[in-house]
């Protein structure tokens, strides 16, 4: 697999699926546009998928100039590999660039790499470093610099170095394994992995993977040597950060970005009401993230809302180690009684898209489409009676966090509507998380991961530490092992279809929706749509 | 007089010492140190990494020793890393290469306030910059609050029980009974929202150009203070303090107005305005003066709430941030500043009282 320079990201697979659903009348056009654009498809292209011409499809060319003021937490800076908040990365994106970048549509595109290759077993990666890149102190950017970064990332003796947990395949004894990174020539690097790993590139796109200069001393503000087009002017923790275009540096990608003159991050604290006041007074142009009730408030004061689909979700899962959930038909019957669309609407205010009781999201590159789920409450009741559980009282446990308990309340209400006895138990968060792995029937929130196989590995493989559903299926384990060795997403999809099916057939979990993230920005700011991992690529923003 | 001052300063030092020790104890509880390590080295680090971070940064010594280090009576910790470089509490004061020049002790007695872990800067810098911002806020609060309170109090107190008195007293009680976190929010909703309150009306009449009348956020006041971005925070604090001072002034005024010499003046035929301004006022102001001075430390409470509500980075905001992030040395310095403010205002009020009321003498 090779990614060429300047190659446009392919149209997202799921966007095509949505287009077909829309043409079949299963999806409204408005809904289709929301989802397709949330998958990174530009609006004109989305209309194109439906065979329509985009209304006022003006090709807008970016303009130079302007200042954007963004509300965001401005935290004390530190060494990028120890970053634990994406806000820390967002301020530095203008000068600290990455080898590769994770996009809104779930794809990975090269930045400081020109392209990469992997062998068929996914045990050897060749990274072709971009030519003609210089650091802003004038030094040329070479494969040696990248090798130095790999060494830094693999040093697990540094507290909080989260990169080390992503690069286990090239590490040994808490350090970079000798010979794991081979400098072939000035612009080529080869990684020799100890085991097949297809997630290594997504790890390099993650926010702590910013590439730093060999002279880096741990402070990206005082010592802002990087390859990007911007530089910091000031940085006051808790107050704000100011970034301006660097006039003394010629950026490798000049002409394709760095439109804005100046970016100001403003930290107004954690109370969204203060953000509303500042937005109304015209003091901020854009938010880092908008949540909950504030979505409609920011829309009402004239800011534009954008949405990013993520694979974060709430799994209302059964633990198969506990009767009666060791009976597949009981699990299937309870699933059959629940309409996921209703859970999304009433349990989560429609702030996401519907999921299909398996843990692969449309934003994952290897997502495969399956036939829609059916809901049949009468049959659900009948199935339980056949299994002798007609009068059993089930118990659904959740933590007291609002969306957890709302979602579970709705799931329980639907099960009750099928004439099945069910009791709801809500535990305080501190108590709940002590036993989250072993409750017979409870709800767990899962964070976003860029590849579909990642959560399957963590949560559904037999015997895994986080296998909260006690799911164990030889065919599933086998297929997953194979999928873990396939680098190409389209090839992997063939196996994923079956993996997803197994999850549905076995009634592992009620996975009702994928949670979306939202952001508000003024209408004259372009390119600032919400990103599934909260990234703010201000080097690509522009104002009209 | 001199012995009085010395005694007062002595009390101040003892109070500061006790208070800082309490703050030090509370911020150095083991669970708090865990939080500190996690905010500093990464929120998802393991327990072993927490222990190693605490050890490497000098937090593993007994609490009393570290309090002594902070005071500057115990030598600062030092540590030699595996690669031979020396780290230590006092090392940041000199160049890292120049180990010999590093002082043995560095604490309050040496004039070193320590480093803020939240802001990654010397505490003295953070505190002085933020105190400056709060100084401006307090100055405007006093300029608004004191004359308003005195006028309301004097007007209400000159004719006890009159309609003016009833109306002004109701206003004063209402304002002092409304905490800042209520009045601040009401002000924002009423005056700084484009969808509710008066702003949409004014916009539809074409009286104002922007979407809102006042700024509901005072962050821009950091660069430049304008009436529109500073009025709401100032009013929020001033209203709360005003009611109380006005009530005291009224009580003092009514008492003075019943005195024999006022009746004598009236019988002599002096005009009512003259009686109030020339004879009653000075005597009526003794009690409010003390109250105003005592009110200043109280206003520090309001400053915390208002600065956080309006995101104005001053002393109160810093205190909030320091507490929220368990920033030990910044909290200690903030408590020293708070003690200073309380005792200095009390000192001024004692001395001023003597000056205003010749019957009292400090011996």
From TrEMBL, chain A:
Name the predominant localization.
periplasm
According to its UniProt entry, this protein's organism is Roseinatronobacter thiooxidans
Native organism taxonomy: Bacteria, Pseudomonadati, Pseudomonadota, Alphaproteobacteria, Rhodobacterales
Q: From the UniProt record, which GO molecular function terms apply?
A: peptide transmembrane transporter activity
Q: Which InterPro entries match?
A: Peptide/Ni-bd (IPR030678), SBP_5 (IPR039424), SBP_5_dom (IPR000914), TAT_signal (IPR006311)
Instruction: Provide this UniProt record's keywords sorted from A to Z.
Output: Signal, Transport
Localization, per the record, is: Periplasm
Going by the entry's taxonomy, the superkingdom of the source organism is recorded as Bacteria
State any GO BP term from the record: peptide transport
Name recorded for this polypeptide: Peptide/nickel transport system substrate-binding protein
UniProtKB/TrEMBL annotation, chain B:
State the membrane topology: Multi-pass membrane protein
The protein's UniProt keywords, in alphabetical order, are: Cell membrane, Membrane, Transmembrane, Transmembrane helix, Transport
What Pfam families does this protein map onto? BPD_transp_1
Q: Which InterPro entries match?
A: MetI-like, MetI-like_sf
Family annotation (Gene3D superfamilies): MetI-like (1.10.3720.10)
Q: Which residues form the ABC transmembrane type-1 domain?
A: 131-349
Q: Does the keyword Membrane apply?
A: yes
Its BP terms in the Gene Ontology are:
transmembrane transport
Q: What cellular component terms from Gene Ontology apply here?
A: plasma membrane
> Where is this protein localized, as stated in its record?
Cell membrane
| Chief location bin | membrane
- Family named by the database record: Belongs to the binding-protein-dependent transport system permease family.
This chain belongs to which protein, by name? Peptide/nickel transport system permease protein
UniProt lineage: Bacteria, Pseudomonadati, Pseudomonadota, Alphaproteobacteria, Rhodobacterales
